[in-house]
Each structure stands twice: as structure tokens, then as C-alpha cells.
Write a structure and sequence with these properties.
2 copies of one chain form a homodimer. Chain A is α+β, with helices and mostly antiparallel strands and 599 residues long. Chain A has helices at 8-18, 35-53, 57-63, 79-88, 107-120, 122-141, 144-156, 284-320, 344-376, 380-415, 418-421, 427-436, 444-455, 458-477, 485-509, 513-547, 553-570, 573-581, 586-589, and strands at residues 66-67, 73-74, 159-164, 180-183, 188-199, 208-217, 228-233, 235-237, 243-246, 249-254, 265-278. In chain A, strand 8 (235-237) and strand 9 (243-246) form a beta hairpin. The longest helix of chain A is centred in the middle third of the chain and has 37 residues, at 284-320.
């Protein structure tokens, strides 16, 4: 019932016109990414998403995954064929290292492609998405042999991968994990323990599944300093690269969830499974964080993606559904009623969604470009600044965009009224699917703590100072642009609020760390509004520049209308977040823990 | 897995101490409602909710309702027994007219009871809830014979009732409805047409179902001025009150929905079914509005109810789940980690939920008391003011409390992290169930239009002026109460913002009605924050008064802590809503309708 139209034009506008990726043709991979190539890749990727993956979205929700008595898992009808098309198309290796068979294209292009995949079928997209996360962790921390063994097959999509962190008694607090690793003297370990919430832990899409597992080597220190990372494949790999013995690990059950039914969320039991250390002993958490940060960006884009597909279907409904008359007189007098798009409150809902989608997309792709600059720039200072900024942005992108992804999928459902609440129309699936993104890869409250407790103060605040400098430069560059002035004013005001909030944190968190915790979510929201203001200022500048020279004037005019919605309907929340964060920890911490309980 | 603890103490505090219902002992029914009686009724009602209805909540979600080939519908296991206990206990007639077998107790007490029922099992509560709405409409508009025929059986719960408005092509815009009524010359009509979204339209709980159906009498004017209301029972009723012939109406199908699976949402087909006019010809909409307004208050309390049961379970989890350490050093050093309630951001989520629940409950019960004063006061001016205020409050209560009910059920789910997303823990059901309340009985955007377009300007703004006068009197009465000062200041500031927003509306809606539409939702939210500020000021005043004289000092201290959370963490949104509503219709209406579509 739902449809998905890939936002090719918008993705291309951001990548080619706003970020001007063409400027970086001197960097590896970027020379191959001409404007035409980027558009062609987006077109092809969009076709896969819209024509192959989206029709399976509801099928996946209805059927879910099935675990059989032998621990094997069957994915929903059509997923296997679709995955084959995905792999055969070379999509998995789009921006992966060419040494292992990837295409080495910019990461920013992968993110754009991932948005379309997640919008079309979020549950499906998690299979290749997690595999790529695992491949990146192996690429960063594996031995040359490990890389040669696993990466080429993961890049083709023949094998997938997973990350195994959570155990029943520990999720956020990994220091408590119990899965153990016993060295066998031959370089291998026997891994035993239970992991839960393992997305794509078992399925029928690929020949092998490469599990990355956090475990504690016998005798290791307690807490997070005794955790190591292991690669534990479902099938052991022979010297010649062929598949060998089945490893002693199994899916012990599937979670019944609110949504993403098409993805297998597994309990994984490791029973003296054979694994090999990845990276250094006891430094597993650090290695896993490579995967985590990548995964967090992948989740952030899910927020934009689900919101966009929900928006599209709501907008189509609003143009089609006849109900009531415009407050200013009939707009479709020949019909029994006007389409509901004439009603300002329906438009408000749609435009608030759209302003966050388009601003969020610009923010996300700009951040993704930082990852490219960090990985590929020849200039040390550029690399460092890019890495600083990406680190700072990651928790905010993840939390803000997934919070809004859920809220706005719900707002899109609302446009359909009662129909939105039925399974038939498909809107409620978007809401259920979107909800998980606020939780996995670190619940959004953890992202907020990561931002205020780690990313902000690190290196004396170097990252946020670099971001402020970029904003200041943008403002200085665009003085005198009258049409851009509201964006510049909004950006400057939001920056002043973030400066104010940051100073409050510096002054108060030291005295009482609970002040940082109590302020964290409101700080994250305030900070994210500044990032969106920055994204929108960039979009608007380019739209103004291009509007008069192009045929498609309406596209740019509409961009500027949507930008005004951001300035007038979304950005005003900044002041409220600032007021709330400054209210501090005292009332939050005043009540006895037991007094929270009912009765 | 979930539990529910009826908030007896809090309900009693609001009804007996804050609203001081004892003051109204001169009014019919109130003399029977002593403090002890009220507490006893709440205790008994709470037991029914917690012990009988709540254990069936998950059963209802999992099993749903089943329609058989003959059009009959079976409710989930246990619902029938539970409904019998509900009826046998006399709960259906708690505040209904004694002339028809009701107990005639204050409506405010019914609302408190309904909160507990909805929290325990929202899908179940809709069966008796809709029946009461139908009974009230018959009571207000039926002939003496109709009342005598239907009401006594509806009051005992032997029969239930429904409201039939929506048709496939019209929901909000009832002017388009097509169901027709053909007079038979004997006072009866033949009703033919299809109605959809009929909650409790068919089920196995009661001996008869009394459908109230909107239809158009042959030859009636087009639009809303040609709609009449009919009573169309499932079984015709013989002169002696016994059940006669089966009427020709049938459930044609059940909707598959996101939630409230335990309630049968029916397509109802009327095929020359026999019905009788209720009220005057062509004035059906007016008669139905009695039912609608009652139903909207019933939906508003669902928002508070679901948020409360979700909060309770999240708070219990937060006290139990060990994960991480407090930022200020271990609080449970003998355990492997601290319970997550030590973390400020977890507390923030819980307290923001709680501040809205407790403030919303106070607001809701205060509004319910207006309904009692309107119905029962001997003073004409009191009756009128009460009716004005209740009319003004109804759309705000419905929209604001259900928006927050959903948002806060989702926030409660978040406290559980991944567990919250699984079916096993039951939190995700609360989120799915809560979602419908934003839609049915008039989508929340329609409530906002009702507020700004109808309730606010009616009688020259008499209702809001009465509300302002009440606020001014409260402020004047409590000058010099130092401890109450933050509440008084918050209330005064919120009132000033509402005055400002109202003036903006008056000045701008006349010039362009779309300004009212564009402002409506933000105005409703701003207005609702004022109502909550009013509720919290009342709660705080009473808590301060009672704190030092009572044993249970902690209860009152905690009330005041929660009140501070409202003032410092929720009320700051008022200014943002004011800024947004003043941004006006221009950017909202600027884009062509087609430009909303993707591609």
C-alpha cells in the first residue's frame, strides 16, 4: 500500500551543490565520483530500494523471521532474492577499501544510499548494514590474515557480520559482561557465553556469518579493562578460503518485538565456539567502538529515512483525501470536499516533518563528509578537525534524528487519521520500526551522556571550538546576503544559546556531575538545533544561488519555504531547551528512589 | 509481566483535598459522596481494575477479537467474565441518573474510576465507556419511551451501546455522510448504509447492543443540516422489554490495528435495519455532540491512564535494573552496579512523565467537577460558567493529554531500553494502545480547530474570560504565600502568554482564517500548559497546607518536587509555542499542494 520515491534530487543537491564534493577530486576515490557518477549511482540505488526492497517491507513485517528447531532462521519471503540482487549489484562494497574488492567511493555516497535502503525497508537494511560495521572493525583492528580471510567475502556480500555486545544482565554497562574466552595455545580461543539482541545473528541470506564478540579472557581484569574482541565465524574458514566446520554457536531464540520483524533479533549461544582475538588483549571495547560509531551513524540515517518514507505517504494521502473545506473558501469546488492538504494544520504537520528531514539530511551528509576527510585528506590538521567534528556530531545525529524520526513517523500517521492506525495502510509499521532506533547502538540518553561527558570536554573542547569556528566563518562569509539574513540570524542566535548552555555545563558539572546528567538530553537537543540551523543555512545559501540560474526554480523556492518552517516552527525550541538544562540536577535528584514507585 | 497499582491516594487527594468535593454536599448526589465513601469506592474500583482487568490486558492484545462467518464477534479470553464482574458490581451506573437505576454519584468520581479502568485495560474499558456515552445521548435527547426502553438495561450493563458516525468517505467531514433513513409511517425508519471504525460494534459481552447511528432521512437537505440521529438496536425490544427479532445489521469485518486489539473495531453494515429517530429531524449532529463531548473526556483520561501505568512499570524497572554507577559515586556498592534510577536522565524521563500525569489528573478532575456543577448546581450563573469552562477545556484535555499520553508511554518504554521494545515486557503495548487516543473522537488537529475556531470566540470569549477570572482570583488569594510563589509566578507568566496568543489570534484570524488554522495546535499546547500550571498551583497549595499537619509528610514533599519538575522542565515550552503560533499562516500556505509530493 505504501510507496517510496527515492529522494535522488535532494541527495544530489546536498552532495554535489551544497557540499560540493567535486572540490575534493584530489582525494582517493573522489576523482571517481563526478557529479554524473554520483547521480547515476543514486539513480540505480534508488531503483533497487524502491522496486526491490520496498515491496518487501510489509511482507517482512507480517511474516517476520522464523527460527527452526535446529537453530536455523528463515527470513521473510523475498528477502533472500532481494539480498542476492543487493550483493550482485556490488552495493555492499560501495565505499569500502579497494584492496579488498570495494569500490572505494566516498563514504558520503554510501550514507545517501543507506538512507534509501533504510527508508525502503529498514529491517532488510540492517543485514548488510551490520555486516559493513563488522567489516570496518576488522579492517581497522584485524591482522592482515584476518582481513584477507574475511573482508573480500564480506565486501561481496557473500558473508555477513554481526556485533555481539549485550548479555542479559548487561547492555549499557559492558563492564559486567561474563562471556569468557579460553586460550587454546594455538592462537585460537574457546568462547562461551550468551549474547542477546543480536541483530542479523542468524539468517539464510549469506553463506557465512562473521560474529564479532566481546568476551573476557580467563584471568582478565574485571570491568571494561578486561574485555577483548574476537572474531567467531559461524563456519570456520579453511586455509584455501572455503568453508569448513560449523562452529559451536547457535541462535537460541528470536525476540518478539514491536517492529523490524523482518530482521532476526537473536539470542546467540556460544558453547566453546572457536574464535580469534581481534586487536589487542583487553582492548576490545576500543576496537568495538569503531564499529559502534559507524553503526550509530547508520542508525541516525534510519531516523531521516523512516521519517521521509512516512512523510511521502502522508503527503500523498493529504493530496488525495477529500474532507472538509478550506477555511478561506472551497479550493476544489467541483469535488464534494477539498483535499485535506488545504488545511493549515495538516500542512504544518507535513512541513515540520519535511524541515527536519531535509535539514537532517544536510547535517548527516555534511558529517559523513567529515568521515571522508578524516580518512582521506592529506592535511593533518584537516584530518584532525574532521575527526573531532565527526566524534562530536555522532551522538547528536544518532539521538536527535532517531527521536524525531519516531515522532515524525507518528505525525505522518496522524495525517491519515483512523486509516493511519490500521495495518492496511502501512503507516503504523513505520512508527513501530522507527521506535527501535532510539534504543539500539546505545539508547539516546547514553548518546546525550556521551556528548556532554565525553565528546564536549575532550581535548579541552577542541571539537566544539572547531565547529563554532566553522559557524563563525560561515556567518562572516555571508554578511550582506539579505535573503539569507534570517538563516544567519537564526544560526547566530542558536550558537549563542549553545555557548550559554556549554558555559553553564562547564561551571556546574564540575561542582556536581549530576548537573551534566540532568542537562544532557536538553543540551543534546539544543546542540542539534544548532547543527540543523547550520545545515539549513548551507541549504538556503545554495538554493538562493542556484534558484535564478536554473530551470527548476520551484524546487529552490520550495526549499526556502521549508527552511522558513525550520526557522519559525522548529528553531524556537532552542530557548526552551536552554531554560530546562539550566534548571539543574537538584529537583531531579531530590526524590528518594523508592518514592518513584507506585502505591 | 506488567503490574498496575491504582493511584487511590492521589485520586482521593485531588477529589477530597484539592477540589474539596465535600463543599458541594448540598447538590444532588454529592451528599452521598463523603470522603470515606469516595475512598471506599476508589478502593473497590481499584481492586477491580488491578486484579480483574489488568491481568487481561496482554491477553486482549495477543488474542484480539475474532469475527465469525455469521458476523458474530468473540472477545478475548476472560473479557466476558470480567465484564460480568464489572456489571454486577454496579460500576456502569456509578454517576448515572437514579431514575434509571444509576447511583447518581458525582461525575468526577466516574472519571476517577474510568482512569483506573483505562490504565488497567484500555481496550476493555472502551466497551462500557462507549455504552455510557450512548446512554447519555439517549438520556439527553431520547423520548421518555426510548429512555425507559433502553436506559435501565444499559445502566446495569446488560446492554451496551455504540456511536456510528464515520463512513468510508467521511470521518471528520460528516456533511458528506450517505447512510439513509426511510420513514415507514409507523414512527420507525429503515436504515441502510455502511459505517466504519465502530468501536465495540459487535461482541459477546452483552445481550443487546444499542447503536446510535447518524443517517440522512430521504429528501433531507445536503450537508450537516440534513443529518439525523437514530437508535438502532441489535435486537428489537418487545413491549414487555424482552428481546425480540434480530435487526438487519451486521458486523462486516474487523479492522486490524496497531493496538487496542482487545476492542472490536467494526465495519457495520445496516441493511434496512429498523431504527427510531432520537431528538429532532436533521438535528442529529447536535444530539451526537452530547455523546462526543462525553467521549472526548473519556479519551482524555485514557491519555493520563496509559501514561500512568507505563510510568509505574518504568519506575519499577528503574529501581530494579542494575547498570552502571552513579556519576557521584556508587549508591549500591554491595551490588555489581547501581539501579538505573540513580542516573539523572532516567529520573528526568520518569519525572517529566509524572509531572504531566499528576498535573493532568488534577486538570481533568477539576474539569469533571465543572460537569457536575453544570448539571447539578442550583445557581444559574454557576451552571453557565461551569458549562462554558468545560466546553473550553474539552478539546484541550482531549488533545494535550493524549499527545502526552503517547509521548510519555514511549518515554516509559525508553527507560527499559531493549526490553521495552520486546512484547514480553508489555511496555510496547502501552505505546501502541495509547496511539489511537490521538485520533478517535476527533483527531487532535480537529480538537485544536474546535478550540480556536469555536470554543474560544463563542459568546464573545466568555469562557476564557471566566477561566482567566478564576486564575486571577487564585493568584490574588495566594499572594504572600512564599513557598507557593514559583507556582503563582509560573501561572501568571503562562496566563500572560495565553493572553498574548489570544490577542494575536483575534487580530490575525479575522484577516485570514488560515492564521487560526496554522496557529491552532501551538495555541492548544500553550493553553494546555496554562491549564496544567493552574492544576499544579492548586495541587501545590494544598500540599503545602497539608504537609505539616499530616503523618505522611513525604507524600506532600514528593508532590512539591514533582511540581518543580513541571515548572522547570515542562512549562518553559510555553514561550516556544507562543513564538511558533505567531509565525502565522504565510509560510505554511506558501507551497503548492503538489509540491508536497515526493519526486
Amino acid at each position: 500500500m505504501t510507496t517510496y520515491v527515492p529522494p535522488i534530487k535532494d541527495l544530489s543537491f546536498v552532495i554535489n551543490d551544497v557540499l560540493q564534493v567535486g572540490k575534493y577530486a584530489n582525494l582517493p576515490g573522489f576523482a571517481d565520483a563526478s557529479e554524473e557518477t554520483i547521480e547515476a549511482i543514486l539513480e540505480e540505488g534508488g531503483k533497487l530500494a524502491a522496486n526491490v526492497l520496498h515491496p518487501l517491507n510489509k511482507v517482512g513485517d507480517r511474516e517476520g523471521c522464523v527460527r527452526h528447531d535446529d537453530g536455523s532462521v528463515t527470513t521473510p519471503t523475498g528477502f533472500k532474492d532481494a539480498y542476492k540482487q543487493f550483493s550482485d549489484g556490488g552495493w555492499q562494497g560501495l565505499s569500502f577499501d579497494t584492496e579488498y574488492g570495494g569500490q572505494g567511493l566516498p563514504y558520503v555516497l554510501s550514507v545517501a544510499f543507506n538512507e534509501m535502503v533504510s527508508a525502503a525497508n529498514m529491517a532488510f537494511g540492517m543485514y548488510p548494514g551490520l555486516a559493513m560495521g563488522a567489516a570496518n572493525a576488522l579492517h581497522a583492528h584485524g591482522t592482515p590474515e584476518q582481513k584477507q580471510t574475511y573482508l573480500p567475502k564480506m565486501v561481496t556480500g557473500e558473508w555477513t557480520g554481526t556485533m555481539n555486545l549485550t548479555e542479559p544482565h548487561c547492555g549499557t554497562d559492558l563492564g559486567m559482561l561474563r562471556t569468557k574466552a579460553v586460550p587454546q595455545g594455538d592462537g585460537s580461543y574457546k568462547i562461551s557465553g550468551q549474547k542477546i539482541w543480536i541483530s542479523a545473528g542468524e539468517h539464510d541470506l549469506a553463506d557465512n556469518i562473521v560474529h564479532l564478540v566481546l568476551a573476557r579472557i580467563e584471568g582478565a581484569p574485571e570491568g571494561v579493562k578486561g574485555i577483548s574482541l574476537f572474531v567467531v565465524p559461524k563456519y570456520l574458514v579453511n586455509e584455501d578460503g572455503s568453508l569448513g566446520e560449523r562452529n559451536s554457536l547457535q541462535c537460541g531464540g528470536l525476540e518478539e518485538k514491536m517492529g523490524i520483524h523482518g530482521n532476526a533479533t537473536c539470542v546467540m549461544n556460544y558453547d566453546e565456539a572457536t574464535g580469534w582475538l581481534v586487536g589487542e588483549e583487553h582492548k576490545g571495547l576500543k576496537a568495538m567502538f569503531v564499529m559502534m560509531n559507524e553503526a550509530r551513524l547508520g542508525v541516525a540515517i534510519q531516523g531521516v529515512a523512516i521519517s521521509d518514507v512516512a512523510y511521502q505517504n502522508a503527503a500523498a494521502y493529504a493530496n488525495d483525501r477529500l474532507q472538509g473545506r478550506s477555511l478561506t473558501g472551497p479550493k476544489a469546488p467541483d469535488k464534494p470536499a477539498d483535499p485535506i492538504i488545504v488545511h493549515p494544520d495538516v500542512r504544518r504537520m507535513l512541513l515540520e516533518q519535511r524541515a527536519t528531514i531535509e535539514g537532517g539530511r544536510a547535517w548527516m551528509l555534511w558529517a559523513a563528509l567529515q568521515a571522508d576527510l578524516h580518512a582521506k585528506s592529506e592535511d593533518e590538521a584537516t584530518r584532525q578537525t574532521a575527526d573531532d567534528i565527526l566524534g562530536l556530531m555522532t551522538p547528536a545525529l544518532k539521538a536527535y534524528l532517531t527521536d524525531k524520526g519516531f515522532a515524525h513517523a507518528s505525525s505522518a500517521l496522524q495525517v491519515l487519521g483512523g486509516s493511519g492506525y490500521t495495518e492496511e495502510w502501512g503507516m503504523e509499521q513505520f512508527v513501530r520500526d522507527a521506535r527501535i532506533a532510539m534504543i539500539y547502538e546505545g539508547a539516546n540518553g547514553i548518546q546525550a551522556l556521551d556528548l556532554v561527558g565525553r565528546k564536549l570536554p575532550r581535548d579541552g573542547g577542541r571539537a566544539i571550538q572547531a565547529f563554532f569556528a566553522e559557524i563563525d566563518a560561515f556567518i562572516a562569509d555571508n554578511q550582506g546576503n539579505d535573503e539569507l539574513k534570517p538563516y544567519i540570524d537564526g544560526l547566530a542566535a542558536a550558537k549563542a544559546d549553545v555557548v550559554d548552555g556549554t558555559q553553564w555545563l562547564m561551571q556546574n558539572a564540575f561542582a556536581n556531575p549530576d548537573n551534566a546528567g540532568a542537562a544532557s538530553t536538553d543540551y543534546l537537543n539544543l546542540f542539534s538545533l544548532l547543527c540543523l540551523a547550520h545545515g539549513w543555512a548551507q541549504l538556503a545559501r545554495t538554493a538562493i544561488e542556484k534558484r535564478d540560474g536554473e530551470d527548476d526554480k520551484a524546487y529552490f523556492e520550495n526549499k526556502l519555504i521549508t527552511g522558513r518552517i525550520f526557522l519559525e516552527r522548529i528553531l524556537p525550541d532552542a530557548k526552551a531547551h536552554l531554560a530546562k538544562l539550566k534548571s539543574g540536577a537538584e529537583p531531579i535528584m531530590a526524590m528518594d528512589a523508592e518514592a518513584f514507585m507506585a502505591g
